[in-house]
Amino acid sequence: MKKKVLVTGGCGYIGSHTIVDLINNGFEVISADNFSNSDVSVLKGIQKITGQSVKNYNTDLCDLKATQKIFKTHPDIVGIIHFAALKAVGESVEQPLRYYKNNLLSLLNILECVETFKIKNFIFSSSCSVYGNAQALPVTEKTPRQNAESPYARTKQVGEDMIADFSLVHHWCNCVSLRYFNPAGAHESALIGESSRNIASNLVPVITETAMGKRAETVVFGNDYPTRDGSCIRDYIHVMDLANAHTKALQYVINEKNTSNNELFNLGIGEGVSVLEAVHAFEKTTGKKLNYRIGLRRPGDVVAIYANNDRAKRKLGWTPTRSVDAIMESAWAWEQQRN
Ligand code: WQD
Predict the structure, then answer these.
(1) DSSP letters of 54-99?
(2) Among 152, 225, 292, 306, which one carries the catalytic annotation?
(3) Is there a domain that residue 201 lies in?
(4) Which of 5, 49, 80, 155 could be stapled to 103 by a disulfide with Cβ–Cβ 3.0 to 4.6 Å?
(5) Confidence class of residue 34 from pLDDT cuts 50, 70 and 90?
(6) Model confidence, pTM
(7) Does residue 244's CB lie within 6 angstroms of at least one atom of ligand 1?
(8) Which atom of ligand 1 is closest in space to residue 182's alpha carbon?
């Protein structure tokens, strides 16, 4: 009998790629996604890749009654992977209350359902932005969290704290928070990829849209930082490696390998790549010359951050296998075929 998992935000970028990996690893998946930042066409892509059609509930998770209906319909859900959230850093600075309400109320409702319907396994989509401007690199899960640089990052810090408090009371529930570094790239089929409703602000889609002629240029936000080439450093992780980490984390708690009922894991590849190095990796991998220029720094950017991922490797048995070149190759393939 296949184990049934609820993926919230299942039509989003990381959610859809995770559903593919879960199905490939024998799970039955249902999704809850209200398409506020995704498109129903993603479900077709998942079906073409896996041969499975995934049932999606177009549910606003800020509506507790509507959310409870999913669990009443599916009493056999063994785990939840909670992706659904607004995640545009810049937008969160302009619309803090919208971000606090959406990201925290939806998490609150999901946790209430975990409690009511006794869902024993809960995976939360967190972010490396909880570290803020980390003083020492690479960051480990024990690196103190600095002040959040944006309301988005603060919803992830508060989310982790809500889960920690919840897990202290409900010892029967195994909780894991996964701190993503910079997800990028697309499934090798180019049938799914990064395509939020918002105008792309993340570096890799900005690069591929520039190469496609959808935007005139890529602006490198500053080359006067104290780094090896003056541009900011990040830990870019291929979205399929990130997806597999979710499957591994779910198996980790379902098989009760966890040593506490609230664990944190860094999900990065463990090396830093600068913006200019990323641009050059795109040009080398695709053979396309990119039209870019150096611009002003972007407020809120941290200078450098990359992961120590030893804990995820050791405890989850997870190893990222794809390089920045593979990210650029798959992101470019996706950009070329998407409408
Ligand atoms: C990366 C680097 C920019 C665009 C955010 C969230 C993080 C996670 C990933 C969800 C920075 C530079 C970018 C451009 C540029 N989101 N850049 N020109 O800000 O590191 O992280 O997305 O989990 O939580 O904080 O990602 O891709 O926006 O920027 O020079 O047009 O690329 O300055 O140094 P970021 P990003």
Answers:
(1) PEEE---TT-HHHHHHHHHH-TTEEEEEE--S---HHHHHH-HHHH
(2) 152
(3) no
(4) 155
(5) very high
(6) 0.96
(7) no
(8) 9
Any domain includes 317: no
333 located within any domain: no
Confirm whether 152 is a catalytic residue: yes
Report residue 302: phi and psi, to 5°. Answer: -85, 150
Count of domains for the chain: 1
Distance 59 CA to ligand 1 centre (A): 29
Beta strand 233-234 with 273-274: parallel, antiparallel or unpaired? antiparallel
CB-ligand 1 contact for 305 (6 Å cutoff): no
Whether residue 301 is contained in a domain is answered as: no
Tokens of 105: 């109320």
Give the relative orientation of helices 41-50 and 13-24 as an angle to the nearest 10 degrees.
20
Q: CATH number, domain at 47? A: 3.40.50.720
Pocket lining: 301 vs ligand 1, CB cutoff 6 Å: yes
At residue 338, the pLDDT reads 86
Spacing, Cα 203 to ligand 1 middle (Å) = 6
Q: How far is the CA of 183 from the centre of ligand 1 (A)?
A: 10
